[in-house]
Design goal:
It is a single chain. It contains 15 helices and no strands. The protein has 440 residues and is mainly alpha-helical. It has a single domain, classed as Amino acid/polyamine transporter I (Up-down Bundle). Helix 3 runs antiparallel to helix 9 and helix 5 packs across helix 10.
């Protein structure tokens, strides 16, 4: 049974924006400027990350045009490679991709909404994080259209706050000093190996801030004219976020001298205070809080649709199959898992593993565009030269970034291997177990 087509271009674009803008854009450049040594090179790294994300959005748009139904990487890999590959992608989404990312975004939201400096003695740690997950979980389970509207409103407020910050900065272009002096007088040449290595490392972390550009594909079955609407929302949302990221970071890295920013995670708050004082710093902190809150809402909305698709294919319990109550059940399942993960200590240590695993899954999904179509529904036409170029660019860049991350943190690669091994064991257990009697 196909769900109602209840989402349009505005909601899908807001889902993409909400999934992309979290806390990364407000923190990453402090570390990048320490590694690269100059504001100009930091902006180049953000531009490279944006190009990679836009290539990914165009490629995912083609995937959605071929198979305009919910399911994401699970669907694409199941149909184009093998059901086992799809199952592994779905397993990653359930255990790490959405659940882990939701939990981390909720924890970050609590850190900004109730900072330690104002927490009363009776405050229970993680209570706000869990509450935010539960509120949006139950909302997206039982009041879908209302909470989609609420989510759109949160995204709108966040964008207004960030635009106000950029306008305040633009009004001071000629009246204040902007700092573009590098950390050191003698930086390594732009094309030296040292600069290349530092740039690759910075793009690696910056790319995490662009994650979420593919969010709309997970709810394609509930979209009006998905063959057109989903691809449009992907590239529109990604381009808007890329422009916003570059503009914000142009202010972040030049508002104060580089020496005051290098290695500091609170770069956005430092720049905001320099531009507009305490009130502007408060505005940016509110924008960060809203950014992480909208990420929680966006991922709770999109992630559960993967599990319904898996249930439809008989590799997930039948109670989650597409039907009148399936979305509510899968949303509640996602909510329980994410809320539970909030209570797990050292969750932040899992982020490198999560991002590496998800990046590989996305790259393999995009790679299927370069293979002959194996599923009738996907054989609509050969990808255009633009799509092929974007697919190759995204796949190559993602594997390079994932390789760098694994080289820096070998434990992440080991954790990815363990996840895939557990997924393989579960595949052997679940294969055919959840199919209807007449299909076994």
């Amino acid at each position: 049974m196909k769900p109602d087509a209840r989402f349009g271009l505005t909601t899908l674009t807001c889902v993409v924006i909400a999934s992309m803008i979290g806390s990364g854009v407000f923190t990453t450049s402090g570390f990048s400027i320490a590694a690269l040594g100059s504001a100009e090179r930091v902006l180049i790294a953000w531009c490279i990350g944006g190009v990679i994300a836009i290539c990914g959005a165009i490629a995912y748009g083609e995937l959605a045009r071929r198979l305009p139904v919910s399911g994401g990487e699970y669907l694409y890999l199941s149909r184009q490679l093998h059901p086992f590959a799809g199952f592994l992608a779905g397993w990653i989404s359930l255990t790490a991709g959405f659940s882990g990312a939701i939990a981390m975004a909720a924890i970050t939201f609590e850190a900004y909404a109730v900072p330690e400096s104002i927490r009363p003695a009776w405050f229970v740690p993680n209570s706000v994080a869990v509450a935010s997950i539960l509120i949006f979980g139950f909302g997206h389970a039982f009041l879908v259209k209302l909470f989609a509207a609420i989510q759109n409103t949160v995204v709108g407020i966040k964008l207004v706050a960030l635009t106000a910050f950029l306008i305040a900065a633009a009004s001071q272009i000629s009246s204040r000093e902007w700092h573009w002096t590098p950390l050191e007088e003698n930086l390594p040449p732009a094309w030296s190996m040292a600069t290349f290595t530092a740039m690759a490392g910075s793009v690696m972390w910056i790319s995490l801030s662009y994650a979420g550009f593919n969010a709309a594909v997970y709810i394609a079955s509930e979209v009006k004219d998905p063959e057109v609407t989903v691809p449009s929302s992907l590239w529109l949302g990604t381009i808007l976020v890329t422009v916003l990221y570059i503009a914000l970071n142009a202010v972040f890295v030049s508002a104060v001298p580089a020496s005051e920013l290098a290695g500091k995670p609170e770069i956005a708050a430092i720049a905001a205070k320099a531009v507009g004082g305490d009130s502007m710093e408060l505005l940016i902190r509110c924008a960060i809080g809203l950014g992480t809150l909208s990420s929680v809402a966006g991922m709770i909305m999109t992630g559960p649709r993967v599990f319904s698709r898996m249930a439809d294919d008989g590799v997930f319990p039948a109670m989650f199959r597409t039907g009148p109550n399936s979305i509510s059940r899968t949303v509640l399942l996602q909510t329980v898992i994410a809320a539970s993960l909030v209570l797990v200590s050292n969750l932040s240590e899992l982020l490198g593993y999560l991002s590496t695993t998800l990046a590989i899954s996305s790259a393999v999904a995009v790679f299927t565009l370069l293979l002959p179509a194996r599923h009738a529904a996907a054989a609509v036409s050969s990808p255009s030269l633009l799509v092929k170029t974007c697919a190759i660019t995204y796949v190559a860049s993602t594997f390079v970034i994932a390789g760098l991350m694994a080289n820096n943190e070998p434990a992440d690669l080991k954790a990815t291997g363990i996840t895939l091994l557990l997924g393989g064991i579960l595949w052997l257990f679940s294969r055919g177990r959840f199919l209807p009697e007449n299909k076994r």
